[in-house]
């Protein structure tokens, strides 16, 4: 049955887990397959052509090997540079991070002075601003690329002096331009929200698109009549493209999963099979 098939969620690494958490809350009876493309991390330093290749092969794997009923590109860098250009190549519905975010901003933050923090590749694409402006946003937008954040977060240093220094460096624009709203334009950044809050002037509102993506995912499942209406307990399978032991340890720390099993999968030309199962004990 179609409704019993999994929902594929992907990111370059641990960032998409911030989206997975929102999806877990919104869709507690679904089966999720989370893929972290750790072999190609960080996406934010890659060219749009490279991101297009990674995204295409991930979606092909989700459709052909996993049999996903819906694919979610939690990753903003993929959503900004590849998704709109290639999602028509797939028969499953594909949802990205940026369009749900735009809907939320127009509904609740119209006219604000907004800073968007994102990876260099996302900022270079201008996709966040262009999507907001095309949809009718009328406030002020400034995009800030934060290249040091993803390596810091992936290495687990999600507090401390190094993060604090980079945060002051990137976010000084909030004082200089009198911004009052911050968009997390990268899935990794909610993991450092506490430090960012500390650094920003008081009264700045945070927009984490994770909730908007989860709402949109629920709507898509209703629309295509593929919502899992059973009382099944949520199930999540984790895959990554390199260093599964490391990813397993990160899952343990960030998601409090006791012994997360992670399957290594190497993607190439849109076809791949799991190579090895790794249990972290
Ligand atoms: N977390 C991804 C994003 O939302 C990409 C981070 C990276 O690998 O640079 O943009």
Structure description:
With 281 residues, this protein is an alpha/beta fold. It has 2 domains: 2-96 and 211-279, 3-Layer(aba) Sandwich (Rossmann fold), CATH 3.40.50; 99-209, 3-Layer(aba) Sandwich (Rossmann fold). Helix content is 43%, strand content 19%. The protein is built from 12 helices and 11 strands. The chain has helices at 17-26, 48-66, 76-86, 98-108, 120-125, 127-134, 149-154, 161-171, 173-177, 193-199, 210-223, 244-255; strands at residues 7-11, 31-36, 70-73, 94-95, 113-118, 140-145, 181-184, 205-207, 235-240, 261-265, 274-279. It has a 7-stranded mixed β-sheet with strand order 4-3-1-2-9-10-11, sandwiched between helices. Helix 12 links the parallel strand 9 (235-240) and strand 10. The longest helix is centred in the N-terminal third of the chain and has 19 residues, at 48-66. The chain is globular. The two termini are 34 Å apart. The model is unreliable at 270-281 (pLDDT under 50). D-glutamic acid is lined by residues 11-13, 15, 41-44, 75-77, 119, 122, 150, 186-188.
Structure in a nutshell:
The protein is 43% helix and 19% strand. The protein contains twelve helices and eleven strands.
Overall helicity: 40-55%
Bound molecules: D-glutamic acid
Tally of separate domains? 2
Find the count of extended strands (DSSP E, 2+ residues): 11
The secondary-structure element order is EHEHEHEHEHHEHHHEHEHEHEE
Which terms would index this structure?
binds D-glutamic acid; 12 helices; alpha/beta; 2 domains; disordered C terminus; Rossmann fold
